[in-house]
Specification:
By secondary structure, this protein is mostly helical. It is 88% helix and 0% strand. It is elongated and about 50 Å long.
Length: 150
């Protein structure tokens, strides 16, 4: 076991395990935020595993997850806008923490990969991961409801 795989195991057990518990229990606002954070934490795990196992195909999975995870959250935010408007979720701390984790993992893997075509793909994953997470979190906290009234 190398450091990359150990870091992936720590993020997987601590972060994704906690968010899966949040998805399975609690009020709707906590479940919606936990769903968004689970995809934002699973993507860095895939990047760490890609580096740890030397499997570039895992980066492709992270790219797909970074693209489709926030889209799924936006769909939930749109469908549940009425229910979430009464008690909107506020997850600024966890959202920024997961964005920082994703950015840190992307930077670490970019440094390890060095200048190549894979570096460009990693940067795209990082932009999609952080940007998508922030947009989806904003939609959950009431942005989708504001857009619906316009």
């Amino acid at each position: 076991m190398n450091g990359w795989i150990l870091a992936a195991a720590v993020v997987l057990t601590a972060g994704v395990g906690t968010t899966l518990w949040g998805v399975a229990t609690g009020p709707l606002r906590r479940r919606a935020v936990a769903q968004n954070l689970s995809t934002a934490l699973a993507c860095p795990v895939l990047l760490l595993l890609a580096q740890g196992y030397d499997r570039p195909a895992y980066v492709d999975l992270a790219l797909v997850l970074a693209l489709l995870g926030p889209v799924g959250t936006l769909v939930f935010a749109r469908l549940l806008a009425g229910e979430l408007a009464a008690d909107p979720p506020c997850a600024r701390g966890p959202t920024w923490a997961s964005a920082a984790l994703g950015g840190g993992v992307v930077v670490a893997v970019c440094v390890a990969v060095g200048p190549s075509r894979a570096l460009v793909k990693l940067l795209v994953v990082g932009v999609l991961l952080i940007g998508g997470n922030l947009v989806a979190s904003r939609a959950l906290s009431g942005g989708a409801e504001e857009a619906r009234h316009d």
